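So, can you check these tokens?
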Amino acid sequence: MNEFVNYLQTAKESLKNVTASDAVHIIIGNESCDLDSTVSSIALAYFLHYHKISEVPDSAIVVPVLNVSLENFLLRAENCFVLEECGIPLDTFIYRDQIDFVNLLKTSTVTVSLVDHHVLSRNDRILENNVIQIFDHRPVDPSSNWDSKKISIKIDSVGSCSTLIAAKILQASENILCKELAYMIYETMVYDTVGLLPENGRAKELDLKIADQLEKSRATVYEKVLKAHNDISHLTAKQILLKDLKIVDDIPVPGLPMLLQSYLKIKNAHEAIKSFSEDYNSTIVILIGLEAANKVKRDVGIYWKGEGEVFKDILLDMFKRSDELKGYNFCFSEMCTGYNDIICLSQNNIKLTRKHIIPIIRDANIN
């Protein structure tokens, strides 16, 4: 058994047997638990196990927590593919439904590193006072109010949060990057930046610099992971909505591994969206479609019912004025869906992602 897998299994067992005298350092990604969030959590945990920062006791148990239930993690085909390809069993991890943060905070000294997000979800706000480190690559959220004098914050506009973690590791010690870890980070970076190709607008200078140190075959890696991500043959229409889900101010925002126009052709897709809105007690569902097999294509869908129509109208108006409000233009054009309660917007500026859509959703919700 390689040392990396041995560390993960030991960390999990240690957390199960934690006592009041133990210190615990948690590394946790965002609630969508996508590939970048997963690998960033794992990589930083492994690094901090050997190179603890001053705020973390030397004796602390350092453990990554995958911020989704095991059941929902299995829906993330690209995550499972990358981990299995590297020989890392899925049962070596602690999943969000397997850890009781309330009890842990009561019984142990806990510190927390956030990766791939810097605004805690409602379920994770209990950890707020224990955060001592943040790595993220999305735009700074105005609602965040972390004290940079007390918390180490690294927020940089790169294509992948894994790039920031890899840079930290490489700066300290290349010896930590065992084969499995290096390959996982590289696969994640290639996938997150749509092949590390400049024309796709995702890869930044640091992504390319770190990738050069981890280089193998960009095209082959990207195509393999993308194929796994797009494999929905085993999923129902409703499970596809859960595959890459973010909750923004109680509004479900599923990321689709295809365009919304293609998703709506799947059997029971419309019924799945309606049921999904009921499950989350929301009159609005915002669907982000992405097709990246050959040429990148994007679209955005809005489903509404009842009073959700008011929010839909506000959101559409803000999308149209995004250049004025946010300084970027999605270049949306409306497409027919065949449904009276779903509108589809084809996104002609493919360089803008869900990270640019979420701030507008939050602003629309305030209004």
Q: What stands out?
A: Residues 35-50 form the longest helix (16 residues).
